[in-house]
Automatic annotation (TrEMBL):
<keyword id="KW-0819">tRNA processing</keyword>
<keyword id="KW-0808">Transferase</keyword>
<dbReference type="InterPro" id="IPR002649">
    <property type="entry name" value="tRNA_m1G_MeTrfase_TrmD"/>
</dbReference>
<dbReference type="Pfam" id="PF01746">
    <property type="entry name" value="tRNA_m1G_MT"/>
</dbReference>
<dbReference type="GO" id="GO:0005829">
    <property type="term" value="C:cytosol"/>
</dbReference>
<feature type="binding site">
    <location>
        <begin position="133"/>
        <end position="138"/>
    </location>
    <ligand>
        <name>S-adenosyl-L-methionine</name>
    </ligand>
</feature>
<keyword id="KW-0949">S-adenosyl-L-methionine</keyword>
<keyword id="KW-0489">Methyltransferase</keyword>
<dbReference type="GO" id="GO:0002939">
    <property type="term" value="P:tRNA N1-guanine methylation"/>
</dbReference>
<feature type="binding site">
    <location>
        <position position="113"/>
    </location>
    <ligand>
        <name>S-adenosyl-L-methionine</name>
    </ligand>
</feature>
<comment type="similarity">
    <text>Belongs to the RNA methyltransferase TrmD family.</text>
</comment>
<dbReference type="InterPro" id="IPR023148">
    <property type="entry name" value="tRNA_m1G_MeTrfase_C_sf"/>
</dbReference>
<dbReference type="GO" id="GO:0052906">
    <property type="term" value="F:tRNA (guanine(37)-N1)-methyltransferase activity"/>
</dbReference>
<feature type="region of interest" description="Disordered">
    <location>
        <begin position="226"/>
        <end position="248"/>
    </location>
</feature>
<feature type="compositionally biased region" description="Basic and acidic residues">
    <location>
        <begin position="236"/>
        <end position="248"/>
    </location>
</feature>
<comment type="subunit">
    <text>Homodimer.</text>
</comment>
<protein>
    <recommendedName>
        <fullName>tRNA (guanine-N(1)-)-methyltransferase</fullName>
        <ecNumber>2.1.1.228</ecNumber>
    </recommendedName>
</protein>
Amino acid sequence: MTWRATVLTLFPEMFPGPLGVSLAGRALASGVWGLETRDIRASATDRHRSVDDTPAGGGPGMVLRADVLAAAIDAVDASSDRPRLVMSPRGRPLSQARVAELAAGPGPLIVCGRFEGIDQRVIDARQLEEVSIGDYVLSGGEIAAMALIDACVRLLPGVMGKLASSTEESFSAGLLEYPQYTRPQMFEGRPIPDILTSGDHARVAAWRQAETEALTRARRPDLWALRPVQITGPKSESRKTPKNKTDG
Ligand code: SAM
């Protein structure tokens, strides 16, 4: 079955947006993945088609109503076991590991919030998984949903040219990627590092691994502390284990 994303939003006209160009856009056009949007407002029942109301307990802004959003979710996905996500700055930070899981499944249903947020009861009642794309606040969940979908789509079979490009890049092994260079050989007095043009594949690989480790250590001590390391046991069996914070 084709991987598909179903997006519930008050602004369906924002889609496919950037997902309609380049890698993701070509894959969408050729049917490698599918995109459906549902306008949450289509599930409003009053004559003003209202979707929000003032926060219980007072405070600024408006809150997306539980009854309207629940009806919108049920209209597209009443019974399936697809992951049900809601984009939220309060959610678990999105990781490459979670992206890979989502890409391996049937594709998620994604709720895009607006206003001050969403009535907690629909998050609980429809068991929505809250997902954050970072510690900052956007005005709506649509751009966050696009980021998540884009990250998933590029992992789908047939979307990226070379498998190696996804297995070597940042986060796939829990580390950041090494620096990349291309022609011209000299740019404003800065040459490409000699080793990369030496033709010695083993030395290139060793240089890249060293750069990957140095960059991760300097920029993301949190990732460095958790990096998987190879431990060779007495019978030469190797296993992966998290590196202890204290060992540098
Ligand atoms: N009052 C909310 C809070 O402080 O957590 C922020 C609401 S924000 C203005 C409106 C919507 O944008 C959210 O419901 C969510 O869907 C989306 N959003 C904002 N920042 C996000 C982030 N970092 N990650 C994922 N979604 C985000």
